[in-house]
Amino acid sequence: MVLTSIDWIIMALYFAFVLGIGAVLKRHVKTSNDFFLAGRSIPAWVCGLAFISANLGAQEVIGMAASGAKYGIATSHFYWIGAIPAMVFVGVFMMPFYYGSKARSVPEYLRLRFDEKTRGLNAITFAAMTVFSSGISMYAMAKLIQTLHILDLPFHRLGIDPGWIFHVGILVSALVVLGYILLGGLTSAIYNEVVQFFLIVAGFLPLVWLGLRNVGGWAGLKASLAPEYMHSWIGMGNPHNNRLGVEWFGLAMGLGFVLSFGYWCTDFLVVQRAMAADSMASARRTPLIAAVPKMLFPFLVILPGLIAIALPTAPVHASGAGSALVIPAGRGIIPVKLNPSSGRPVLDRNGNPQLDYDLAIPNMLLHYFPTGMLGLGLTALLASFMSGMAGNVTAFNTVWTYDIYQSYIKPNAGDEHYLMMGRMATVFGIALSVAAAYMATRFNNIMDMLQLVFAFVNAPLFATFLLGMFWKRATGHGAFSGLLAGTSAAALHHALTIPAGAIPGVKGGWLAIVHTYPSEMAQNFWTAIFSWCTCFVVTILVSLLTTAPDESKLKGLVYALTPKPEEVDRHWYQRPAYMAAIVLAVTLVLNFIFR
Amino acid sequence: MGLDIRLPIGVLFSVFGLILAIFGALSDPSLYVRQSLGINVNLIWGLVLLGFGFTMLLLVWVRARSSRAAARKTSDFSK
Q1: How far apart are CA A350 and CA A243, in angstroms?
Q2: Intervals of chain A under pLDDT 50
Q3: Of A4, A373, A374, which to mutate for an interface test with B (greatest number of B Cβ within 10 Å)?
Q4: Model pLDDT for residues A81-94, shown as the tens digit of each residue
Q5: Which DSSP letter does residue A351 get?
Q6: What ipTM was assigned to the predicted interfaces of this complex?
Q7: A145-192 pLDDT, tens per residue?
Q8: Is B79 a domain residue?
């Protein structure tokens, strides 16, 4: 890749800006509440854009375009089924308890509603997960900088060994994120997420525009791709008739209910953005405002993947001098995946070369953007990596300080002490992320295993929150044993089933093979469904066997014991119920159009 | 909240827009034939970003003016 000075100017300006925002906000951070909860003073639209942006990390941007190229329009299920309904639910039904209980974090809500052990379990697994995810983000970013040869030329000029590019990528991203969070805390993270939201739109919209123009608009795209690429619902009756390899029930229940509600309604990373809102009304509007861009994002992130695969296939490049290796052509502008150590193409189980779908977005940027716009596009990509990291780091430092440090290590210190601890947690949270990033470079299997364990831990969560918020009889013992049972059920289901064609091991089937799923995705969705149901049933049974909780302590925490929030908004369209109805109706129409 | 977020966004996008538009206007057209279907995407998109940045700054200015007016009004009442 050849970058000219204009690209570097744009990138440098952005980095200076990010740190500048932190520096300006520094003087507003006086208490731990300012640092961890942005002083609960952010207007709804800012929280809304940060809510969606915290989730719009680079794995999402790159991954969704990759899925678009691999699965086609059906990838939109991850938005229209797998996000919007849950975002509406958390805004309309759950936010009154999160915001109204004055809990400072999601684990803290669990302590108020249930008990200490349930909070401890959630806080510790969540903290581990955030460190892990931000490490993965960092690793992916450094890897991409390496793959795209962004820094090769400047390194060559300065006479530095290109082997350092990876380390510099990790170090610089860690320092920038550290800098702006240390300075401005959550406010700084939220502001930068909003800037990043606009940057992503500014960087990718022209990509879609040029790409669509190139392939001859929507009609041209349709003509150059097989019909199963262009439908999201047709073929969902049978897992073998669609590219995802799932049937509609597993999709709707597994993705649309268990996984999506489990993420959007319980993950503190996103909920924290709404908790920072300036009022209950704003907190409830936050996910609903976020849902509007979210439902349009498929056009921004999935479409480039589809265009990348629809373009005429580039001729095969002659491989490097002295090697007799023939690298087969990819498809569209997506190249064949190469084994990083041997340089040979990676083959699937039928002996066909696999495509490196993750390069859909980077290759689209290189294909369409001249120098100048290229700088902007790369800045957008880097911004999304950093905001993914920052989201995790701000969630980590809050949960660590309030739910672990203040609860178990040093309970009665002054506010200044916790503010200091929050800053320290930011430093060691990022240090741990760097460690996780290096772990990813050396022990790929360990990372896959960890990811699996986290999936097992997350799957049952929503059952616990649903019962906690809407069934006043649910007890702490019930919730705790439900969570453990749900996680075990997920592990057991994974141990007994396997996706078609996989080898028993990290993909499943490590105890015995009782059932074979048509695809890995189907297996994931069903693991989640089994786990959720187990948690739901066990929580109810154990709750009924243990003493009922004291109702006077559940005010503001459970639906039946909380006064309905008053609809005080000036305009009808600001009311959560109306906003929810509009968002759901438009989503329904989108599903119908792209059926 | 001490800082209106629209101010930094307005400044950043105006600067980006200005840089891209000027670069687009001065750069050699062959750059665009090779990469972006002959469309001078730097100039066009630079102007779009400039417009967006300006709109944000305008909103900040309008809000600052109306809150100043409101402050004047309340001080009139208190007299």
Answers
A1: 17
A2: 318-324
A3: A373
A4: 888 898 899 888 88
A5: S
A6: 0.87
A7: 887 777 777 777 787 777 778 888 888 888 888 888 888 888 888 888
A8: no
Q: Are strands A515-517 and A497-499 parallel, antiparallel or unpaired?
A: parallel
Handedness of CA A40, A46, A48, A53 (dihedral sign): negative
User: Given this structure, which CATH class describes domain A5-214+260-306+372-442?
Assistant: mainly alpha
Work out how many domains chain B is built from and give that number.
1
Query: Which token pair is A12?
Result: 């440098």
Task: Select from A482, A523, A465, A525 the least CA-distant residue to A112.
Answer: A465
b/e string for A329-355 if b means 16 or more Cβ within 10 A? ebbbbbbbbbeeeeeebeeeeeeebeb
- Are A276 and A542 in contact by the 8 Å Cβ rule? The answer is no
Phi and psi (nearest 5°) for A515?
-145, 145
Q: Which of B19, B32, B49 sits opposite A9 (nearest CB)?
A: B19
A20/B16 CB distance under 8 A:
no
Q: Which residue of A has its CA nearest to B45?
A: A206
CA gap A35, A186 in Å, rounded: 6
Residue B1 lies in a domain: no
B37 touches chain A (CB under 8 A): yes
Structural domain including B18 reads 6-73
Q: Which of A363, A327, A289 is nearest to A88 (CA)?
A: A289
Q: Where are the domains of chain A?
A: 5-214+260-306+372-442
Model pTM score:
0.86
3-state secondary structure A202-233: HHHHHHHHHHHHHHCHHHHHHHHCCHHHHCCC
B78 located within any domain: no
Question: In the prediction, which pLDDT does A322 show?
Answer: 44
